[in-house]
């Protein structure tokens, strides 16, 4: 899962990055509206944390641009002004939720998890695929109740697939959602991650669809 | 007496009545003066014409007087005007012989046939030769006569002084003058009526913009309009512009105060967020103090910012906010943000035109906090009703949560405490609603909903 954090206050941005990374997200940072607008347009994010008071281009404008351009990723707006006026404007511009500063980091994580889950069409915080269960609140995966020991990249890859069971996910799509922007990307490494995951998971859970990508095949029931 | 005094006062205070009365007095005076002037001018003209006619008759008489062989004075030919031959026709002549002392020696030496056997009596006066005098006398029928006399000495007998008199009834003057006066009176009467009508119409027309201005002001006062609309005559437009300017400036001051409060919020809350987040990751005694104090600071900032915002919401006339769009926007926010809660919201039907006499953001603030609060506590549903009651409107928000104890309800409104630390929010929500409602002359009451939860009834002025 890859998240864009748009916040112009460097300390808060860093705190957000650390907290989100610790929760298993790949995190990109933008400290102004224009960069955020560009990043949201060309990169694929699973969610965006967007501060409204931004230099160069304000958060609402950025959000409206994204929505007009057909970008549908869930957006959580951060606002220091706790008037309803701004919340209404934010939601009407296409935001999915808002948080008023100062906020508890746990609350932000919970809201973000809920947004991503909802965007993928899941009602529960736990994603289930046969014996495999992904607890989005704890960033943990279990098979038959046994916790899996996963690296952050492996977890992100698995979480992305778990949010889209039965769908074919291309290798480039996985690259987009697993790495942060400044990471040295190589689509070949996806194969390495998939191979490692397969070893930790029950057999034939991750199918290879030749020429297209991968698919999570959940046994019925 | 009181009624009369009241009417007098209204007269003095009404520009329109003053203007009307002044113009009417002026028209009456002007028309009377014109009537008098014209009438006397005409009178003078007719009299002069009359005298000229009498003069012509006198000249004709003088030209026709001859002495025959017996030295008797007679007329060479009868005078041309037939009235002189008709008895008592009103036009007469007479010739007297004058004595040496200027006294009439022989009265009525000759006279017109119209005089019959009457004699024209001339008031005594000393008349030089050739001089012409005008007299007013009584005629044979006792009618008023206008008479001219002249003393002539015939060339043949310069020792003889003859007094030639021509008289005519004054009816010949007074009749046309009376006819003229009638006509003049009618014409001037019609003119005055026309002028008065024009003045009334004009005053009313001139007053129409003022009436519109009054209506515009009333609309602003009732909150039906934010400014006085429409174009006014150039004498009134500056007034309207100034007034609208004051309204706009007031609104601007509120916006500026809001923006400043918002900027302050932004400037303080971001560092507070940073501090709180940093401290939360640590377990030292210092971190605990920081977490505790940051929470306290946050509460204080929220509290004072809310008060500052509310204080900025002074009652500016002309504010009007329709309830429906604000309600719909807030319901959209609630449904989006609280989608996980699975709460069903029902907003009872109310007229499109229902409006709050106040500012949009304040209404958003009050309704937003009420709805948010209800959503947080509801277990499955929130019911909203909007009703008009007398001059007020009442918004009722109910939830089916576990409600609040009667003892807690007042505290919640008074100081804005958080009754549940687990739920997000500063806990000031209801206190802010109450502050704002009181500023607008409204109020909020909390009681138990029949559904089990809390019922908040917000009363606000209706526009």
From TrEMBL, chain A:
Which domain of life does this protein belong to? Bacteria
Q: Name one GO cellular component term.
A: cytosol
Biological process (GO) annotations?
A: regulation of DNA-templated transcription
**Is Endoplasmic reticulum among the key words of this record?**
no
Give the 4-aspartylphosphate positions (modified residues). Answer: 51
Show where the Response regulatory domain sits. Answer: 2-116
Q: Which residues bind DNA?
A: 124-218
Which InterPro entries does the UniProt record give? Answer: CheY-like_superfamily, OmpR/PhoB-type_DNA-bd, Sig_transdc_resp-reg_receiver, WalR-like, WH-like_DNA-bd_sf
CDD domains (alphabetical): REC_OmpR_EcPhoP-like (cd19934), trans_reg_C (cd00383)
Domain called OmpR/PhoB-type: residue spans: 124-218
What PROSITE patterns does this protein map onto?
OMPR_PHOB (PS51755), RESPONSE_REGULATORY (PS50110)
Signal sequence range:
none
Task: Tell me which UniProt keywords the record has, alphabetically.
Answer: DNA-binding, Phosphoprotein, Transcription, Transcription regulation, Two-component regulatory system
Q: Which GO terms describe its molecular function?
A: phosphorelay response regulator activity; transcription cis-regulatory region binding
Q: Kindly provide the name given to this protein in its UniProt entry.
A: Response regulator
From TrEMBL, chain B:
One GO molecular-function entry: protein histidine kinase activity
Catalysis: reaction(s) = ATP + protein L-histidine = ADP + protein N-phospho-L-histidine
The processes (GO biological process) annotated in the record are: phosphorelay signal transduction system
Give the CC-aspect GO terms.
plasma membrane
Q: What is its EC number?
A: 2.7.13.3
Q: Does the keyword Nucleotidyltransferase apply?
A: no
The main location class comes to: membrane
Tell me the compartments it is located in: Membrane
- Which domain of life, per UniProt? Bacteria
Q: Which leading EC class covers this enzyme? A: transferase
Domain Histidine kinase: residue ranges: 263-463
Does the record bear Nuclease in its keywords?
A: no
Q: Which UniProt keywords apply?
A: ATP-binding, Kinase, Membrane, Nucleotide-binding, Phosphoprotein, Transferase, Transmembrane, Transmembrane helix, Two-component regulatory system
Describe the location of the HAMP domain by residue ranges.
Answer: 204-255
Cited PANTHER family: SENSOR HISTIDINE KINASE TRCS, SENSOR HISTIDINE KINASE YKOH
Protein name (record): histidine kinase
Q: Please report the organism this UniProt entry assigns to the protein.
A: Azoarcus taiwanensis
